[in-house]
Amino acid sequence: MVEKMLTDAGLDVALTAAASVDEAVHRVTRRTHCILVDLSGPEGDRLTGLRRMLAVSGTAAVIVLTGVDDVSLGIRALAAGAEDYLVKREIDGPLLARAVRYGIERRRADENERRLVEARLTAAENARLERGLLPVPLIDDPSLTHHTRYRPGRSRALVGGDFYDTVQTADGTVHLVIGDVSGHGPDEAALGTQLRMAWRTLVLAGHAGERLLGTLDTVLGHERRDDETFTTLCMVTIAPSRRAARMHLAGHPAPLLFTGRGPDTRVSALPDHAHGPALGLVPGADWPATEVELGEAWSLLLYTDGLIEGFAGDGSSDRLGTEGLVELARAASGRGMIGRALLDDLVSGVERLNGDALTDDLAVLLLSHR
Questions:
Q1: Are 14 and 42 in contact (CB under 8 A)?
Q2: Same domain for 147 and 289?
Q3: I need a labelling partner for 326 at 20 to 30 A (CA). Which of 23, 94, 95, 159 fits?
Q4: To the nearest 10°, the Cα dihedral for 202, 205, 210, 213?
Q5: What totals of helices (H) and strands (E) does the chain contain, helices first?
Q6: Which GO terms describe its molecular function (predicted)?
Q7: In which domain, by residue range, is 227 found?
Q8: How would DSSP label each residue in 75-92?
Q9: Half-sphere exposure of 19 (CA within 13 A, CB side)
Q10: Sheet containing 61-66: order of strands
Q11: Are strands 144-151 and 34-38 parallel, antiparallel or unpaired?
Q12: Are residues 237 and 340 in the same domain?
């Protein structure tokens, strides 16, 4: 009778009938869209069978049919999880077909809402976790200001393969690092976080210079997923006097140095003639140091290559490069940009020249001394 009513109502279905709940439990499959449960029977067994079917229904809608005109029973069925409740002697083909369609669509909507809530909770948890992985600079020198911009290239990610950190040790020395793990996936993001934490630990333990880089190179060799992964890195150590610094480059672009104040600010890239290979490429490599005179008022801009690998202009096939970034920095300084405003202006300027948002991981660190 149910099959005839649905057919007459124009609902094309493949109907499977089961003589008992025990049989029905084993006949529900992933292709089942709707389950009609007959609540006719002894008073104590009416909801037992329904609960068993609900337990195996999966994404299928469950509609209750009964020959007993009992509103309280229908309410209890709905409370148990059924999509609808129908009295058999009061239904016809169109009503039953409409209930089936409604039940299926409501079940789909409920399932989509459940998945959406789960996705939001997962995303929120991941966001909290990833934000916790970003560093908090350890600086207590009031003459220094510290600004950063960080943006992973992966969609909906908060942490990428780029990393940075700043630590001031007990003797007043300030240590800066910025690095870029090759690749753009979650494995590279995890490796970047491991290297940053290892670097901070080594700095706080008193390591510096080539000794630190050699140990970090060993850490990379143990933690990377394959032998092809490498990491470029720039490390700057600023003396307690704040007038001099020592720089180590491991296959990484050299920082920009801003000296002077106001419209007289001079911008140049630090010399990169003394450098070593990226970490993870050459066992036992050397990373020579470059001594840098900073002067009294200065800013150091450390960045990853995501800032300079975009195009030098809309429609241009040339890359921006370090020279192009220097020109942008000079123009921004000439307009009086400093601190966070300077970083925002540089990033927006690079994106404008590229003709679109940058797709590579991006990390920028600006440390200024007044």
A1: no
A2: yes
A3: 159
A4: -10
A5: 9, 13
A6: phosphatase activity
A7: 135-369
A8: HHHHHHT-SEEEEGGG--
A9: 0
A10: 34-38, 61-66, 84-87
A11: unpaired
A12: yes
Read off φ and ψ for residue 338, nearest 5 degrees.
-140, 165
What does each C-alpha distance from 33 to 16, 37, 357 come to in angstroms?
11, 13, 44
Q: What is the pLDDT of residues 186-205, one digit of tens each?
A: 888 889 989 999 999 999 99
Total domains present in the chain: 2
CA–CA dist 136, 165 (Å, integer): 8
Burial grade of 210 (CB within 10 A; 0-12, 13-18, 19 or more): middle
Does residue 71 share a domain with residue 164?
no
Closest by CA to 71, choosing from 102, 49, 93, 39, is 39
Judge if 58 and 143 occupy the same domain: no
Is the whole model's pTM more than 0.70, yes or no?
A: no
H-run or E-run covering 353 = helix 339-354
Task: Give the sheet arrangement for strand 289-293, strand by strand.
Answer: 162-168, 174-181, 231-238, 244-250, 289-293
Distance (Å, whole) CA 329 – CA 325 = 6
Mind listing the pLDDT tens digit for each residue in 112-141?
888 888 778 766 665 555 555 578 899 999
Task: For residues 270 and 184, state if they share a domain.
Answer: yes
Cβ proximity of 66 and 39 under 8 Å: yes
Amino acid 116 reads: L
Same domain, 80 and 143: no
Query: Are 119 and 196 in a shared domain?
Result: no
